[in-house]
Every structure is written in C-alpha cells, then in structure tokens.
Automatic annotation (TrEMBL):
Stored PROSITE patterns: USP_2, USP_3
Top-rank lineage group of the source organism: Eukaryota
Keywords: Hydrolase
Catalyzed reactions: Thiol-dependent hydrolysis of ester, thioester, amide, peptide and isopeptide bonds formed by the C-terminal Gly of ubiquitin (a 76-residue protein attached to proteins as an intracellular targeting signal)
PANTHER family given in the database record: UBIQUITIN CARBOXYL-TERMINAL HYDROLASE, UBIQUITIN CARBOXYL-TERMINAL HYDROLASE 45
Domain USP per the UniProt entry, residue ranges: 1-106
Top-rank EC class of the record's enzyme: hydrolase
EC number: 3.4.19.12
GO molecular function: cysteine-type deubiquitinase activity
Protein name: ubiquitinyl hydrolase 1
Gene Ontology biological process: protein deubiquitination
Signal peptide: none
Length: 107
C-alpha cells in the first residue's frame, strides 16, 4: 500500500485533513536486456472484479476468454512472459527489477 495523502493538497485528494489516499500495487513491468534490445515481462496481481465490471459482464453473458477470479486466486501474483503464465510468490513479484509500476486507488 502506498499512502499519497502527505503529497496531495486537500482539494486534490478530495478528502478531509488526516484522511489517507491509499493506492495498492497490482502490476509490475520488468525489462531484461540492454537499452537497444531486450524483453519485457509482467507481474500481475489477481484481483476480484469491481462491481461495475461484474455488472457489465453479466449483461454481456458471452465474453470470449474472460475468466472470473475466484476467491482462492484473488491476491495471488502471476508472472507473464509472452504466452507463458505462472503463479509466483508475492516476494518474487516485489523483488522484481521494476521498470514500471501500476497502482489503483483503494481508499
């Protein structure tokens, strides 16, 4: 979790003084190789879909390739490299040589 409240003005964060502005990490892009060439891989945290996404999917009924995250897989990290996907421990994802990080606001 990352609390950005100390770095936000009250109007920016749309919150009262003392409130937290929390973001959770859900994606990491890692690059291996040189500046001229290399390979990108990603670590992605399996999340439960938002209510809006669930409602949207319920209306569509038939979304090819879409799998819902079950309660057992939510919170797990997966490593994605081209067509290879593997469940990995959180410690491996968090020790990656991050090139780019993805956060979502949780509070």
């Amino acid at each position: 979790m990352l609390d950005l409240a100390p770095f936000c003005s009250a109007t920016c964060k749309n919150a009262s003084v003392g409130d937290k502005v929390l973001y959770g990490l859900y994606g990491i892009v890692e690059h291996s190789g040189s500046m001229r060439e290399g390979h990108y891989t990603a670590y992605v945290k399996v999340r439960t879909p938002s209510r809006k996404l669930s409602e949207h999917n319920a209306k569509k009924k038939n979304v090819p390739g879409l799998k819902a995250a079950d309660s057992e897989s939510a919170g797990q990290w997966v490593h994605v490299s081209d067509t290879y996907v593997q469940v990995v421990p959180e410690s491996r994802a968090l020790s990656a040589q991050a090139y780019l990080l993805f956060y979502e606001r949780v509070l």
